[in-house]
Amino acid sequence: MATTLDKVDVVTVGVGWTGGIVAAECSKAGLKVRGLERGAERGTKDYGMVHDEFRYAIRYELFQDLSKESITFRNNREMKALPMRMMGSFLLGEGLGGSGTHWNGHNWRFLPYDFEIKSMTDEKYGADKLGADYTYQDWGITYEELEPYFNKFEYTAGISGEDTNPFWGKRSEPFPTPPMKKTPILQRFEQAATNLGYHPFMMPSANLSESYTNPDGATVAACQYCGFCERFGCEYGAKSSAEVTVVPTALGTGNFDIRFNSNVVEVLKQGDMVTGVRFFDTVTGEEFIQPAEVVVLTSYVLNNAKLLMVSNIGEQYDPATGRGTLGRNYCYQILPGATGFFDEQFNTFMGAGALGMTIDDYNGDSFDHSDVDFIHGASLSITQTGQRPIAFNPVPPDTPAWGAEFKKASIEYYTRTLSIGGQGASIPHKENFMSLDPTYKDAYGLPLLQLTYNFTEQDRALHKFLSEKSAEIMKEMGAKIVAASNPLTDYDIVPYQTTHNTGGTVMGSDPAISVVNNYLQHWDAENLFVVGAGNFAHNSGYNPTGTVGALAYRCAEGIINYSKTGGSLV
Question: Which amino acids are annotated catalytic?
Fold first, then answer.
C-alpha cells in the first residue's frame, strides 16, 4: 500500500540543472516545491579525493547503476535489442546535480539557424535537400525569443567567454566572466586557424576564469586547471553545476525540499490532468504517492521519455506509419576530427574541461551547403582538458595494438599528441527513435527504454567533410603525422562517444509533430511540463547544456504563469 504524502504546488522528477532551475525560480515565486532525486545527496565537500581516475572515470562512481536500470539498443527494427550492461557510448548520471555534476563545462547557445532549421533550409536549398526520410522541423520558438533565457542561465552559472565569434546569435549582454587562459596549445590552434582564414575564439566555459557571485548570491570559485572535470565532481567548487548554484538558492527560500533515494516510476493522470507521481524509496523499498498541482519531468532525456511511455501519456511514435510523437526525432552527436602527432612535448596532462578554442566557420549554415550532401555542420575545437594516463594511450596509425612497439609509442606520444574534435549536428531520421522494450525490465518491473538508432548518409557525409577540414588545420599546426577520424560505419553502443542524447519529447507549435509547446507544457496535460534535451527537434553542432538551461528558465516562467492563470500557455 502506497503512502500518500502532503500535496505540493510543484514536484520535480530529478534535481540536476533543469530540476534545480525550476525549483529555484518557482520557490522564489512563493510556490512550494519538492524535488524527488533517485540518487544520493552530494556536493563539493564529497569530492576531496576525486582525483582518482580509476574510481571515477573507469569504474563510474558518480553514474547510474545499470544492474537496476539500463536501456536496450539495436541499429534497426529488424534486430533484437539487447541491454547495455556497462556504461558505453554515453554516461547516465545519478545523484544530486545529475549529469551536470560531471560535465566538462562546455556551454553553448544553439544558433538562430537551429530553431528555424526547416524553414531556413527549405527557403535556401529547397524542401528536397535531404529527402522525406529526415524529419527535421522548426522548434516553435526563435533564437531571439529564447535569448533572455540563455542570458539568465549564463549569469546564474557565471560562464567565462568572449563575444568574438561572427557566426553565433546576437547577445544582449557580455559574458559574466572573462575567457579562460589561452595556453600555448590553444595559441597554436589559433594561429593555424587564422592562417587558413578561419575565425577562432575562446570556448564558453563553466569552469570559471575567476571567482564569481551570481545574481542569487551563490558563489562559484575560480578554476585551478587540475584536469579532472569530465566524470568528476569539482572539489574546488569551480565548475558551475546545480548543487553549487541553483539548488542552494532554492533551499534558501524555505519553499523547497528534496527527497533523496526516491525513484519515480509513474506519472499519475486523471482525465486531461496529472495529479502527481508514484515513487519508491530505493533504500527501504517503501512506495509513496506525491500529489502535486504541477508535475515537472526534469530527469535525463531517456528517463523523461520512458516515464511518459510507462504512464501512457501521449502517443508513441510509429516509424511504420509516421504517427505519434513520443520517442520521435531521437538524435545523438556526430564526432568528426583529426589527431596530430608531434616531435615536441606539450603539457597535455594539465587543463580544464572547457579550456579550448573553437571555430564556427563550418557550423550551422555559416557556409554554403549547395554542393554538399548534408545540412548543418560542427563546431571544431581544440581542448586542453587534462589527459589522464589510464584512458589516454594515443599512438600513430599502423602502430601494433599491443607489445613492445605499442608501449614505446604510448610513452613517446602521451605528451606529443593533440586532437581537434567536432561536435557535429545530428539530424533526425524516421528510423531513429525511442520506445519501450517488449522483453527486458528494470528493478521495478517496468520495461526498459529501447533505443533504435544508426548513423545516416547525412551523418557520414558531414563526418567525412569535417574530418578533412580538421586534418587541414592540424597539418597547419605542424604535426608530423596527421590522422583524420575513420569514416563512420554503423553506430555501436560502445565505446564512449558523448552523453548528448536528444529528442523523444520534442517541442514545437504543432501537436501533430511535438510533445510539448514552447513553454515545455505537455499538449495532453496542461499541468505537466517536460524539460531537457529531449525537447530538441534535432541536435546542433554544439554541446547541449546551455540550451537546456535556457529552456529550463523558459519552463519555470511558464509554470509560474500557469500557477496563476491555468490553461494552455500558448
Answer: 500
